[in-house]
Amino acid sequence: MSGPLPTAIHRLSAAGCDCGPDLHQEHGQRAVFCGLTSIVWLHRKIQDAFFLVVGSRTCAHLIQSAAGVMIFAEPRFATAVLQDRDLAGMADCNDELDRVVAQVIARRPEIRTLFLVSSCPSEVIKLDLGTAARRLGERYRGRVRVAAYSGSGIETTFTQGEDSCLKGLVNELPAATAAQRSLLIVGALPDIVEDQFQRLFDELGIGPVHFLPGRSSADLPAVGAGTRYLLAQPFLSDTARALDKRGARALDAPFPLGAEGTAAWLAAAAQAWDIPKARFDAVIAAPQARARRALAHHRERLSGKRISFLPDSQLELPLARFLHRECGMRLLEVGTPYLDRHTAAAELALLPTGVRVTEGQDLDRQLDRIRADRPDLTVCGLGIANPLEAEGLRTKWSIELTFTPIQGFDQAGDLAGLFTRPLDREQRLRF
Amino acid sequence: MELTFWTYEGPPHVGAIRVAASMRDVHMVLHAPQGDTYADLLFTMIERHGQRPPVSYTTFQARDLGQDTAALVMRALREAAERFRPKLMLVGDSCTAELLQDQPGSLARGAQLPMPVIPLELSAYSRKENWGASEAFYHLVRGLLGGRAAAPDGQRPPRGHGERPSVNLLGPSALGFRCRDDVIEIRRLLADVGVDVRVTAPLGASPEDLLRIPDADANVCLYPEVARTACGWLQRTFGQPTISTVPIGVGATCDFLREVGEATGVDVSHAVDAARSRLPWYSRSVDATYLTGKRVFIFADATHAVAAARIARDELGFDVVGLGTYSRELARDVRRAAQAYGVEPLITDDYLEVERHIAELQPELVLGTQMERHIAKRLGIGCAVISTPAHVQDYPARYSPQAGFEGANVIFDSWVHPLMMGLEEHLLTMFRDDFEFNDDRLPSHLAAHDAQGLRPAANESLADPDTAAPGWESAAEQELKKVPFFVRGKARRNTEKFALERGVDMISVETLYEAKAHYGR
Ligand code: SF4
């Protein structure tokens, strides 16, 4: 490995031994999109919400470009682009915002929730969208709920935008009494996955189960000391802390990727609900067996192949765990933009001893390591994939993982398939 | 504040990156937060560049703000200079950094880097992408050539004896519309009349190449959005005339050649007379009769809008019913053209306003950007894309210039195609009672790109009256609807086949997933 080595800051040890992954931190140029990116999937999940970014043309361009295919159906997101006159104080930003919000609501009267999303420029000029949301919430009371959160690149990386959004939602959830037991699944999941999980919980006899975010703004489950929550996505640290503050208790589990991850994730809930083991095994037997069957032939292709992750979606740890343990891949380096040791504990415990886990980023040095290692597959951001392909390396771009159904038993094969496809293509192409 | 749903142009720093990414041996340090690194994908995904654009981003975070963000700039500058060893460094701010006022330009000048530094002021809150590209290119040219002694009287000395006539091609850039092929086409055209191309810039040029710009007889301003400011300065400073007709369309290409002739003293009459394009004859052939008087709406950058209007009216016999642009800097050109065609110019960057105009005018063909393509699709109107904002489809694998005589051929094909498809659609409607056609099918030219067009076919089931096809429980049917439409048909057929083979006569959600697992292997 070339370049000055970053400092090893911590070696995780579960039992005081020198096992577990090898954790490093790195500082330098980052290549991760900002939290605004998460609007691309959040607006599809919460179908009666509108996301208004208060920012610059850059912000508008980012969302449009990250959406990749320009989807020109009337979008449920837009940007209030700050102009010179707003910055020079010639226009009052709050008046301007009120005017733009009125425009949005007039155009989209069916909207039930309006998210005001702050950006780097709005945060640097200290435009307080929280206060603005309260003011506008008053004005549109009974018609539109107005909430604010940060999607800025100085505060959030791309999946943290969802964390920031959900954290805000948690604070608005109604209170439940300690006697009201319920399970809360936290993190945007594709509808099809959500429904699969709901069916499994029903069969297990676990309930009531709520999902956050729900499909409509009306889905605001009550939360309190009787609430147990399971994170469905690994990037929701702040949301988890907000839930803790509301008295809810976390169920610690790996994330529901792969057959093993999904089983362990469901088991955490089953345990909290005192579901007999025999029943649990009976319920998950068929789907788990399906997942294993689906994985078997992917495992053949992936086994022994070497993979590196550049930091991007924060899904890197659970993906690495899944690809290593269920598909037999060899992990070279697992980069992640942030590592929350608390929410990642169960994943870290399942990673092989000595694997290099890097938190943060120094892009050029990381690329140097990739070029030296020449992994069979590199998981990276959208901007870097083609250049690596052009250097003869096979890649999988990570943003796809945030809007493809990959969680749960019946997607385990599809998830592995996302990684076999680039290798399959490599084998087919002759020129 | 301005409510923006979709934007035709990115911010000015993206324009500057386009210039840097067009050139060799140039690097740019951009003071910007991490999210702004999305700019990489514009080049690597949309234009399929095999390399990251030559940009180092400082990627400052909130926790850096209280401290010294200027130190981050210095670090990025030193590391970029060391690692990439460019011959020239561009330095600029993105929108957020502009607010911090770290002045990365002056920092870079004070950093004693071993290469010339050109600072850019990019006015993120009042300007946009093309302006940013134009500024970056102008400052590069001026920064490198500013020290050169200009002709005192603004007159150019006559070309040396035995020296071949030559021009520069200025304006083509990364993420431009068909720039890659236009450059090849114009070089061929000029070679035909015996005029050399000295420098093409920014696309493919190095800083040294820019130093040779004053050696040519004239500058071809191939893409005014990027090069007009620089061409104006070169004209004032070195007395180099600007050839300003953009050679898109047969008529414009002939005018362009005449201008080249005038500026270089070369006889171009044979090339003009030959006008080697098939467009004029194709437009006169009987097959093209149905093109006559088609009502066309045009909205694009100024360069392509003005060129398209001329081709539409004079070379295809269309009626231009609307003409507009999002390029405010060049709005005057479009206003002038609109006047000539007797229509109200539409100068806006609000695509909703463009949509309103199209809906009102009900044209038979829209010539626009990817945004207008979507508008037209929604309204059921044929559309051809003639300008940026760039989309991966605008970088075809095949040679497909817009400029020159071959460009005119390409334009004939690509504009007439959606109309032909429209005609086919008309025939389909005529024969709709025929067994092969059914009312549910969408127009074929829309279906080609439109996901929805696939839907009827995607839902086709195995079920036909002769086989005892299994039934679907309603929960399973609901579940199937959640499968993405483009694989739904396959999922339905596979599940039914799976159920048939196993003698299952009612398909449950469980069956659906058993089948999925079965075929997934
Ligand atoms: S990083 Fe900041 S300025 Fe850039 S797009 Fe994201 S929020 Fe906007």
Strand and helix map with partners:
The complex is a heterodimer of chains A (431) and B (521).
Chain A (H helix, E strand, L loop, with lengths): L7 E4 L10 E5 L12 H7 L3 E7 L1 H10 L10 E5 L2 H4 L5 H15 L5 E6 L1 H5 L4 H11 L5 E6 L9 H13 L9 E5 L4 H14 L4 E4 L14 E5 L5 H9 L3 E2 L7 H15 L4 H26 L3 E4 L6 H10 L4 E7 L8 H6 L5 E5 L2 H11 L3 E4 L1 H9 L4 E3 L2 H4 L8 H17 L3
Parallel strand pairs in A: 2-13, 3-4, 3-5, 5-6, 7-8, 7-9, 9-10, 11-12, 11-14, 12-13, 14-15
Antiparallel strand pairs in A: 1-2
Helix pairs in contact in A: 7-9, 10-11, 11-17
Chain B lengths: L1 E3 L7 H11 L3 E6 L7 H8 L8 E3 L4 H4 L3 H16 L3 E6 L1 H6 L3 H7 L6 E3 L9 H17 L20 E5 L8 H14 L3 E6 L5 H5 L6 E4 L2 H15 L3 E2 L6 H15 L4 H6 L4 H6 L10 E6 L1 H14 L3 E7 L5 H11 L3 E3 L3 H11 L3 E4 L1 H10 L2 E4 L18 H27 L13 H4 L7 H4 L12 E2 L1 H8 L3 H17 L4 E2 L1 H12 L1
Helix pairs in contact in B: 1-7, 7-10, 8-18, 14-15, 16-17, 21-23, 22-23
Bound molecules: iron/sulfur cluster.
A few lines on this structure:
The complex is a heterodimer of chains A (431) and B (521). Helix content of chain A is 43%, strand content 17%.
Q: Which key features would you list for this structure?
A:
heterodimer; A: 431 residues; alpha/beta; Rossmann fold; 3 domains; four-stranded parallel β-sheet; 17 helices; 15 strands; disordered N terminus; B: 521 residues; five-stranded parallel β-sheet; 16 strands; 48% helix; 13% strand; binds iron/sulfur cluster
Structure notes:
The complex is a heterodimer of chains A (431) and B (521). Chain A has helices at 39-45, 57-66, 84-87, 93-107, 120-124, 129-139, 160-172, 191-204, 237-245, 258-272, 277-302, 316-325, 345-350, 363-373, 382-390, 400-403, 412-428, and strands at 8-11, 22-26, 49-55, 77-81, 113-118, 145-150, 182-186, 209-212, 227-231, 249-250, 306-309, 330-336, 356-360, 377-380, 395-397. Chain A is α/β, with parallel strands linked by helices. Chain A folds into 3 domains: 7-31 and 287-430, 3-Layer(aba) Sandwich (Rossmann fold), CATH 3.40.50.1980; 35-155, Rossmann fold; 182-278, Rossmann fold (3-Layer(aba) Sandwich), CATH 3.40.50. Chain A has a 7-stranded mixed β-sheet, with helices on both faces. Chain A has a 4-stranded parallel β-sheet with strand order 4-3-5-6, sandwiched between helices. In chain A, strands 8-7-9-10 form a 4-stranded parallel β-sheet, sandwiched between helices. In chain A, strand 9 (227-231), helix 9 and strand 10 form a beta-alpha-beta unit. In chain A, helix 10 runs antiparallel to helix 11 (277-302) and helix 11 runs parallel beside helix 17 (412-428). Chain B is an alpha/beta fold. Helix content of chain B is 48%, strand content 13%. Chain B is built from 23 helices and 16 strands. In chain B, the strands form 4 sheets. A 5-stranded parallel β-sheet of chain B has the order 12-11-10-13-14, with helices on both faces. Chain B has a 4-stranded parallel β-sheet with strand order 3-2-4-5, sandwiched between helices. A 4-stranded parallel β-sheet of chain B has the order 7-6-8-9, with helices on both faces. Chain B is globular. Mean pLDDT of chain B is 88; it is low at 432-460. The interface between A and B is large, with 81 and 68 residues. Strand 4 (77-81) of chain A pairs antiparallel with strand 1 (2-4) of chain B. The structure holds iron/sulfur cluster. Iron/sulfur cluster (SF4) sits between chains A (34, 36, 55-56, 58-59, 62, 119-121, 152-153) and B (33, 35-36, 95-96).
